[in-house]
Write a structure and sequence with these properties.
single chain, 546 residues, nine-stranded mixed beta sheet, five-stranded parallel beta sheet, binds adenosine monophosphate, binds 2,3-dihydroxy-benzoic acid
Length: 546
């Protein structure tokens, strides 16, 4: 098994320890400590469940022992594929306390993604709900164990069928727990995927704990804070910026919503007196609309975070007057670096920038295509290095060679500029990643699946601007023989086991990718020219009133 590691050069590690960023504590010990201090405070609310810190802590311990008793060994990886339910937290803490590494999949992922994570991480376990949002995860588990026989344990929250009920693991008892080291990898986060498949991001206790603790401070969280988990809590943003973990760090309460809809969330905000929530831009639009007419009392909100994709200044401006609290823009990535506007920043900064880094030791380098730093205020590629930004992906030498400079800077793929006040403005992406309202799609990955269709000769997937999602995806298809219908092509992508958000929003059948001498033009240039052509055609069609 390829060991999990994340190593900073000693001089950096030394600096981060000396500065107090890395404190030599594990993520599990944060919960332990808070549970000792205030066992009766509410830690997490979800559906009918209301667990105190004491109860969450006990459940995590029992699961930790139970996972080890069920045949997993410290160092093993376990894919966690759960929706926004309290068990997400008891499972994640239980695994980490057992020295088992959670691999945090998103609820939308399907066999193609989960199979990939299982293979690359060499996973031994898989944790699922029985049915969630109308999808039976047990069927996915059956397909997965057929494809990846190394999965020896499938644990199910709810009706387990032939698998192991999570409740049985919790009751199994088991060996004494190991003491994971703070510099060890705590879990694997998932990258959005730029070229091809998602990569796995090993995060250590030391680095991740710093990122959510410092985030909790920046966001002013304390024991009175009530965090609403709206986005899938496996995602880095609602997990750590400051998210569920930052809330537990501060001793606050997490409220989990199974649906991001304003209806569901507004009534939870009113009932539980929620103080902070994190949204992606399309959700912010929905919430803004609904807030104008809602009868629910939203006055407990103190901060509304929006991130994951670029928020337009027009929309940003409406947040404070509508919700009566400041907006916070959050520009982050699962690989590390997170930027925030601060709650007391001038409104102009909050509305028009994506904020500045968490740490004084976050190094931000903005370079031109030639790799040299651009002038002050100019636009370029964002590279970064710091106390919670990884130096390497797991088990992917090629991606590592591409994504990190020899000096250990992570190439984010984002095009940004830095204002004189230090705040960053995101101007776009350097590579063909489509950001569909915060959900990241690799053009490459979808094209690979399209090309596997017998009636597709060539395919190019591009982003097109969208008023609601920011970007959506369009697939250009050159057929081989009789052209398949767009609906067939969409069904094909679904049938390949890809997450639904990767299904092209639009499919255009074309004779050729004209203007491109085959083989002479890079995929990137081809996608760019198709994208331009499509935007021009759409504008012309609109002008004609069609
Ligand atoms: P992921 O790889 O899924 O962790 O996504 C990280 C990427 O999301 C970043 O590199 C950006 O491209 C994008 N992103 C995140 N937050 C923002 C934001 N506030 N504005 C613009 N882009 C963002
Ligand atoms: O998009 C992201 O990945 C993201 C956005 C905001 C993130 O990882 C984060 C904050 O931590």
């Amino acid at each position: 098994m390829i060991p999990l590691r994340q190593v900073w050069p000693e001089e950096f590690a030394e600096r981060y320890r000396r500065a107090g960023y890395w404190r030599g504590e594990t993520i599990g010990s944060v919960l332990r400590d808070r549970a000792r201090k205030h066992p009766e405070r509410l830690a997490v609310i979800g559906g009918e469940i209301r667990w105190t810190y004491g109860e969450l802590d006990r459940r995590a311990d029992r699961l930790a022992s139970g996972f080890l008793a069920s045949g997993l060994s410290p160092g093993d990886r376990v894919i966690v594929h759960l929706p926004n339910i309290p068990e997400f937290l008891s499972v994640a803490f239980g695994l980490m306390r057992a020295g088992l590494a959670p691999v945090h999949a998103l609820p939308a992922h399907r066999l193609a993604e989960i199979g990939h994570f299982a293979r690359v991480s060499e996973a031994a376990g898989y944790v699922i709900p029985d049915i969630a949002d109308g999808f039976d995860y047990r069927t996915l588990a059956r397909d997965l164990v057929r494809e990846v026989p190394a999965i020896q344990l499938v644990a199910v929250v709810g009706a387990a069928a032939e698998f192991t009920p999570l409740a049985a693991i919790e009751d199994a008892g088991g060996p004494a727990l190991p003491a994971p080291s703070p510099s060890e990898v705590a879990f694997l986060q998932i990258s959005g995927g730029t070229t091809g498949l998602s990569k796995l991001i090993p995060r250590t206790h030391d680095d991740y704990l710093y990122s959510f603790a410092a985030s909790a401070d920046i966001c002013g969280l304390d024991e009175a804070s009530v965090y609403l988990g709206v986005l899938p809590i496996a995602h880095n943003f609602p997990m750590s910026s400051p998210g569920t973990l930052g809330t537990l760090y501060a001793g606050g309460t997490i409220v989990l919503s199974r649906s991001p809809s304003p209806d569901a969330c507004f009534s939870l905000i009113a009932r539980e007196r929620v103080t902070i929530a994190a949204l992606v831009p399309p959700l912010a639009l929905l919430w803004l609309d609904a807030a104008r007419t809602t009868a629910e009392d939203l006055s407990s909100l103190k901060l509304l975070q929006v991130g994951g994709a670029k928020l337009s200044a027009e929309v940003a401006r409406r947040i404070r007057p509508t919700f009566g609290c400041p907006l916070q823009q959050v520009f982050g990535m699962a690989e590390g670096l997170v930027n925030y506007t601060r709650p007391d920043d001038p409104e102009e900064v909050i509305v028009t920038t994506q904020g500045r880094p968490i740490s004084p030791d976050d190094e931000v380098l903005i370079v031109g295509d030639d790799g040299r730093p651009v002038g002050e205020g100019e636009t370029g590629h964002l590279l970064t290095r710091g106390p919670y930004t990884i130096r390497a992906y797991h088990n992917d030498p090629e991606a590592n060679a591409r994504s990190f400079t020899v000096d250990g800077f992570y190439r984010t793929g984002d095009i940004v500029r830095r204002r004189p006040d230090g705040n960053l403005v995101v101007e776009g992406r350097a590579n063909d990643q489509i950001n569909r309202g915060g959900e990241k799609i690799s053009a490459d990955e979808v094209e690979t699946h399209l090309l596997a269709h017998p009636a597709i000769f060539d395919a190019a997937v591009v982003s097109v601007p969208d008023a609601y999602l920011g970007e959506r995806s369009c697939a250009f298809i050159i057929p081989r023989g009789t052209a398949p219908k767009p609906s067939e092509i969409k069904a094909w992508i679904r049938a390949r086991g890809l997450a639904a958000y990767k299904v092209p929003d639009r499919v255009l059948i074309v004779d050729s990718f004209h203007a491109t001498a085959v083989g002479k033009v890079s995929r990137k240039d081809l996608r760019e020219s198709l994208r331009r052509q499509l935007i021009a055609e759409d504008a012309a069609a609109e002008g004609k009133g069609t």
